[in-house]
Design a protein that fits this description.
Blueprint: H1 9-15, E1 59-70, E2 73-84, E3 87-92, H2 99-106, E4 114-119, E5 128-131, H3 143-153, H4 160-170, H5 185-196, E6 203-207, H6 215-230, E7 234-238, H7 242-248, E8 251-256, E9 259-264, H8 266-273, H9 278-286
Parallel strand pairs: 3-7, 3-8, 5-6, 6-7
Antiparallel strand pairs: 1-2, 1-4, 8-9
Helix pairs in contact: 3-4, 4-5, 8-9
Length: 301
């Protein structure tokens, strides 16, 4: 992920895509969602899941000087960044910093009020899978029926076995016949993650995918994200779990007060500030506002 930050400008220009000839990103994305992949490690082994030294990858999404406002309230200002294929890109920042608005704008669900967002991926039937922060499903369906329903809804035309495999991936195989209205908040989120990968979209956007999950399942969710990236998917997620982000993400963007104030590979961000953790990077970058919740007209960030 690259863009306007306080990191070295030369690096920023080297990483920014050189042309803008591709078509504008379609806003006709399916807003129901989830990732696919088997977790192959125990939760305590995730620290080795994603290396910091990774090869250059092609950008799939590019934001160029994006602004977004809700009426007179400015939420995003001059945000420039990329989301790369085969990488986990994590968006972090304080509550109210604009993370959800940026995710929804990149996913094509919100139109920027300034700047542009360009989709550069394959011309897939479903370009972007999206997990909202608070997924909700129609009652009266089982978990398996729900996944099958959304598969038909997005035109994925997947065999029934694919729905079972997706539930297995997110750890819900044993709950396949349970009514969705009987699920806990965390299990509902896992159904949403399963949906986001239906049709194998080139981009999967996950808004707080580990929210409401216990530590072991949170590790599992990040393992799913890493495996998706290993298969070539561009994974963009937001999270407040800085430890998981630090050891899983290939690129991190720190958003504060609607602006990206720092971004790059976690190792580079740590080296720039001569600290040993992403949490220390976060604390130094937003220390002036520690403990403050910003109010920007939206409350789900």
């Amino acid at each position: 992920m690259t863009g306007d930050t306080d990191s070295n400008g030369e690096d920023r220009e080297r990483n920014r895509p050189s042309s803008r000839t591709d078509s504008s990103m379609s806003t006709n994305t399916n807003t129901t969602t989830g990732p696919t992949t088997d977790a192959e490690q125990e939760p305590n082994e995730t620290e080795t899941a994603r290396p910091d030294d990774v090869p250059d990858r092609p950008p799939v999404l590019e934001a160029d000087d994006v602004d977004h406002s809700y009426g007179p309230v400015s939420v995003l200002e001059n945000v420039s960044t990329t989301v790369d294929a085969g990488a986990v890109t994590a968006l972090i920042g304080p509550n109210g910093s604009g993370k959800t608005t940026l995710l929804r704008t990149l996913a094509g669900l919100l139109e920027p009020t300034g700047g542009s967002v360009t989709y550069r991926g394959d011309d897939a039937a479903r370009r972007i899978g999206y997990l909202p922060q608070q997924p909700a499903f129609r009652p009266g369906f089982t978990v398996l029926e729900t996944v099958r329903f959304y598969s038909s809804l997005v035109g994925a035309d997947e065999p029934d076995t694919a729905a079972v495999d997706r539930l297995e991936t997110v750890g819900l195989a044993d709950a396949a016949d349970r009514p969705v209205e009987a699920l806990s908040g965390g299990m509902t989120r896992l159904v949403g993650i399963a949906q986001a990968t239906i049709g194998d979209p080139p981009v999967v956007v996950l808004d707080e995918p580990a929210s409401g999950l216990d530590p072991g399942m949170s590790n599992h969710v990040f393992e799913i994200a890493a495996e998706l990236a290993a298969e070539g998917t561009a994974v963009l997620l937001s999270s407040h779990d800085l430890s998981l982000v630090d050891r899983t993400a290939d690129a991190v963007a720190l958003l504060d007060d609607g602006r990206i104030v720092r971004q790059g590979p976690p190792a580079s961000m740590r080296a720039d500030l001569e600290v040993d953790s992403l949490r220390a990077v976060y604390e130094q970058s937003v220390a002036a506002d520690a403990g403050t919740v910003r109010v920007q007209g939206v409350t789900d960030e």
